[in-house]
Design goal:
This protein is an alpha/beta fold. It folds into 3 domains: 5-174, Aconitase, domain 3; 180-273, no CATH class; 280-392, Aconitase, domain 3 (2-Layer Sandwich). The protein is built from 16 helices and 15 strands. The strands form 4 sheets. Strands 13-12-11-14-15 form a 5-stranded parallel sheet, sandwiched between helices. A 4-stranded parallel sheet has the order 4-3-2-5. A 4-stranded parallel sheet has the order 9-8-7-10. Strand 2 (43-46), helix 3 (51-64) and strand 3 form a beta-alpha-beta unit. Helix 3 packs across helix 4 (92-107), helix 7 crosses helix 10 and helix 12 (295-305) runs parallel beside helix 14. It is globular and about 65 Å long. Pathway: Isoprenoid biosynthesis; isopentenyl diphosphate biosynthesis via mevalonate pathway. It catalyses: (R)-5-phosphomevalonate = (2E)-3-methyl-5-phosphooxypent-2-enoate + H2O. It comes from Methanosarcina acetivorans.
Length: 401
């Protein structure tokens, strides 16, 4: 792999040990995947934030790093709400370690809004063709597919290394020839909202890491594209997909039809919804927002919960920026007894480990919860989740329940 004179000096340690380690990681990846050089990136999104997933070893490594990131950089969800960790019964010991991790990243100049939807934040803009180093699976999918930016599935260390250098290795989805569809997926039935999560869950299991192009009856909204990509990245390893007539590269480039063709039937999606009979019949916890809820999704949750009271523990996850931007939605949701939680999610928080059965409206969470939290997952749309949470129970006059 070609390195400039400055990059060779960094690799030789002339810019300090932190940057030497960073470029060593990127060069090793470049050698493995056949990169010709390092290329500049516009931004980085860094996983490996929750103390639940990285532990003391990760905290020690991050704390030893020095310097400042060269491009706008932001963190993935942490293991708790950083401002109100007690409400999900996080232990003080965990909270102390989690705060130390976030502070270590902050010392490097990284923005500490912890979210899997950085593309919703002000001042963190991403455009078509931008080269990135992002490491959260659903954010990668959204950036590549819905925005038309270019990023590989970075690990936490490689994304952090890219942030510190302002560069990443030029291979994989940074190259146009690797962004061509490999399989065509046709869905004949109409789809709505959580159907896209079920579709992503089914499709990811079938195609693994291939690049699909979808032929759909209806044009999905951005939140529906978000949930489709998130589910495929979790049940498979899909980092890029196209939707005919919808996503930017499918519209601009006009791909040829792939030889491999798949048809996904309504019955396959129904099997995901029917998980309740196969797993747990009585969810103890209801969670919404994986990836983090958009403003549209927060508004819908607020409308569905208006005048109702939850009778089960209910968590709705979003970024802190959106929660602060739409306090009326948060207030309406929390008047029901549900909790709006920021900075974390049900997958990376240890709080979820206390439950054996969790209902979700996310194909990503549906895929991850059994392995990462030891909980059975049940799938439903947002309306079903809210109905399960409230049992149809409404507030009585005067605000009591």
């Amino acid at each position: 792999m070609y390195l400039t004179k400055e990059e060779e000096q960094i690799l030789n340690g002339e810019a300090g040990e932190t940057l030497r380690q960073a470029i060593e990681i990127l060069v090793a990846l470049g050698d493995i995947y056949g990169a010709d050089s390092l290329i500049p990136i516009k931004s980085a999104q860094i996983a490996g934030v929750s103390y639940k997933t990285i532990g003391d070893a990760g905290l020690e490594w991050i704390s030893d790093l020095e310097g400042q990131v060269k491009v706008p950089s932001i963190l993935n969800p942490a293991g708790m709400d950083l401002e109100d960790w007690g409400r999900l019964k996080i232990s003080p010991e965990f909270a102390e370690k989690q705060k130390a991790i976030v502070q270590a990243y902050k010392k490097l100049g990284i923005r500490c809004e912890c979210t899997c939807t950085p593309y919703t934040l002000e001042g963190f803009s991403v455009g078509y063709g931008d080269h990135l180093a992002w490491s959260e699976s659903s954010a990668i999918s959204y950036a590549n597919s819905v925005i038309g930016a270019r990023t590989n599935r970075e690990g936490g260390p490689s994304a952090l290394s890219a942030a510190l250098l302002g560069k990443t290795a030029n291979y994989g989805f940074h190259l146009e020839e690797n962004r061509t569809p490999e399989v065509s997926i046709r869905v004949e039935c109409p789809l709505k909202e959580s159907d896209y999560g079920a579709l992503g869950y089914v499709a990811g299991k079938i195609i693994g890491s291939q690049v699909p192009i979808f032929r759909l009856k209806d044009a999905p909204e951005k939140d529906e594209l978000k949930t489709l990509g998130a589910a495929m990245a979790a049940s498979g390893a899909v980092a890029l997909y196209h939707v005919e007539g919808v996503t930017p590269e499918a519209c601009r480039l006009g791909f040829e039809e792939p030889e491999e063709k798949i048809i996904i039937e309504r019955s396959q999606l129904d099997e995901v919804y029917e998980s309740r009979g196969r797993a747990c019949k009585e969810p103890e916890l209801i969670t919404i927002g994986c990836p983090h809820c958009s403003a549209v999704e927060l508004k819908k949750a607020a409308e569905l919960l208006k005048g109702k009271a939850v009778s089960k523990e209910t968590w709705i996850f979003t970024s802190r920026e959106l929660a602060n931007r739409y306090p009326e939605y948060v207030r309406s949701i929390e008047e029901s007894g549900a909790k709006v939680v920021c900075d974390t999610c049900m997958v990376v928080s240890p709080a979820t480990n206390s439950y054996s059965c969790v209902m979700v409206n996310s194909g990503k969470a549906f895929a991850y919860l059994p392995g990462m939290c030891g909980a059975e997952s049940v799938y439903g749309n947002m309306e079903t989740c809210i109905e399960e949470a409230t049992g149809g129970k409404r507030k009585k006059a005067g605000g009591s329940y």
